[in-house]
Amino acid sequence: MVKKLYKHELSALARMLVPVNLICLALSLVLRLTYFIQDKFIDNSVFEMFSVLLLMFFVISIIAVFFVSYAMIIVRFYKHLLSSEGYLSMTLPVKPSSHIITKTVCSMIFMIISAIVVIGSVLIAASSSPDFTEFLQESWRYIKAFGEILGPSTVTLIIIEMAVFMLVSLLQSILMPYASMALGQCARKSKVGMSVAWYFIISIILTIVRNIVTLVTMFFIGNFNIDSIEATAEMEIETFEDFSVFVKEILSVSGAHVIVLESILLAAVSAAAFYIITRYVLKNKLNLE
Question: Distance between CA 39 and CA 231 in Å, rounded?
Answer without folding.
Answer: 44
